[in-house]
Amino acid sequence: MRCRVCNHEYDEKLSSCPNCGFLTLRITDFPETQDFGASMVRQYRQIFLDAFSIRIRLYGYDKNLTLKEEKEIDITRFPEIEPETNYWLENPVCHKDKGDGLIRLPVVITRNQETMETSLAADISGLGENFHLGLRISGEMQACILFGDEELYVQSEPVDIM
Ligand SMILES: [Zn+2]
Questions:
Q1: How far is the CA of 149 from the centre of ligand 1 (A)?
Q2: pLDDT value of position 29
Q3: Residue range 134-155: average pLDDT?
Q4: 7: left (phi over 0), alpha (psi -120 to 50) or beta
């Protein structure tokens, strides 16, 4: 069977998922049980989402390309994140001089109470200078940063949430 929280495939004789620990729920024909199951899945996912964050490091330059400001934006703080849904930050970012279009976005990732600095690669060659940043969580509990808008976007390499 497949875990309803993390999509991991495992033996249904086990009482819980060996990947994320969620209890084995068997699908029944009773709608009220399904609703209950769905709300348990959501709550269990939220525990992992609450303990997870990706903060994006953004740098602002003046016209002489001197660094003027540096800020971190937490891209994982949208209320009630559902899987396979796109969430966008309201304010666009501007990225001039894209070179070959491959960027490595500097990020700080917190997961399982550990924090690490890394970067996420994405090919933004098909986008204009101004675009929005967004977040998408897959059914396998991986996070991707989105670049663009709902009409046209690309996504970064995925990050495991668990
Ligand atoms: Zn699982």
A1: 31
A2: 60
A3: 96
A4: left
pLDDT digits (tens, 9 = 90+) for 7-56: 999 999 999 999 999 998 776 666 777 777 888 899 999 999 999 999 99
With 0-12 / 13-18 / 19 or more C-beta atoms within 10 angstroms meaning exposed / middle / buried, residue 69 is exposed
Ligand 1 mean position to 9 CA, how many Å?
A: 8
Q: Are 120 and 105 in contact (CB under 8 A)?
A: yes
Q: Which residues pair with 130 in a beta bridge?
A: 94
pLDDT digits (tens, 9 = 90+) for 74-102: 999 998 899 999 999 999 998 877 678 89
C-alpha 19 – ligand 1 centre gap (Å) = 5
- Ligand 1 centroid to 130 CA: how many Å? 38
